[in-house]
Design goal:
Strand content: 15-25%
Number of helices: 18
CATH architecture of the largest domain: 3-Layer(aba) Sandwich
Largest sheet: 7 strands, parallel
Helix content: 40-55%
Amino acid sequence: MTRAFTPHDYQRDIIRFMQDTRRGACWCAMGGGKSVSTLTAILNLSTVEDVFPVLVLAPLRVARSTWPDEVGKWRHTSHLKVSVITGNPKQRELAASAKADIYTTNYENLEWLVAFYGDKWPFKVIVADELSRLKSYRTRQGSKRAKALARVAHLTPRFIGLTGTPAPNGLKDLWGQTWFLDRGERLGKTFSAFEARWFTKGWDGFSIQPMPHAQKEIEGKLADICLTVNGLPVDAPIVNNIYVDLPAAARKTYKELEDDMFSELDGFEIEAVHAAARTSKCLQAASGAIYVDDTGQWRELHDEKIRALESVIEEAAGMPVLVAYHFKSDLVRLQAAFKQGRALDKEPKTIADWNVGKIPVLFVHPASAGHGLNLQDGGNILAFFSLDWNLETYMQVIERIGPMRQKQAGYDRPVFVHHIVARNTVDEMVLDRLQSKRSVQEVLLEAMERRG
């Protein structure tokens, strides 16, 4: 079911900026609604100029799922046809040849894509989601994908950059991204010129440090082509639902458990003896691993949520991320995938290290991160890797870094809450419960009626 889009004031600013600026960047954090704002601006422009086809560049999961989902979600954009250029060469070729309004692909495919179209580059607009991925571009060096994009970026009439973290490693990150907007007009034709004007060598003789006047001058140079969105509400968390799709094998196991309360996996017979057990098994399958016996053994079904969390952590660009999990198997998998992460334990030093920024990713179980735990100094980003019906512990873990605690600690920053949700699973019912505060029974009954 599609929804009507009523933009917030800050989204109106984004839309206006994109319509008025042929080549510009919007600096807006994840979950701030920049995707639908971008689509709306493109649709508005389509009434006065030729803007289709549009190419959206993004990380793989975002290109494959997030942008197509976003187009289909809104009433005013749902008529647009999207072609996803991912997969093996044959699949990419078919998708790139298909007739569509919007084409999405991941950055890793840029070299192939530019070669595929050759001198018949068709796109009128490029949207570079996570523009900061182009920060390492140099006119004579840098990644092959950025150099491929450089060949066609300025053949494209409009270029829209989107990022929540334009300068994760400092001002030096801005030159590469900005080159795709103005070909070096504002910050220098080459990185060397940029460096000579605003930086000095660090004490080690290799690194560079900005001069005292650099930030103000660079901000002034970019003011007409970069919009920083500061209008996000800070009186409530900014909630972002990230949907993943179960692979075919995992979907089969999930469906067997949901319908028959029984499945076989790696020689194990998995049985849900009652409705509550079935719900738990389905939640496990949605998260990516399932317990196969009573001794605690489990088997991994998929890593879709791991990949989604990678995107959240990547876009945080060094900002600490608090990750809530539900099953012990979740924690094992998270620790294997994110070596830089640590689990919340009983040691006071763990909380102290988090609050001074020494822990980039902290794994917490909502039941052990309840009343009285102060984590707000460590960060303002929370991702729910897996979900549970317990509304109280859900609200409590949010409050550990919540808006009130942020304000009390003197931080003027929004709180971001990301739910990683497996589509068409019990995850969606749990999310409904948590967001609507309805009883578990009400949510389950309504879900069953819809499926009937």
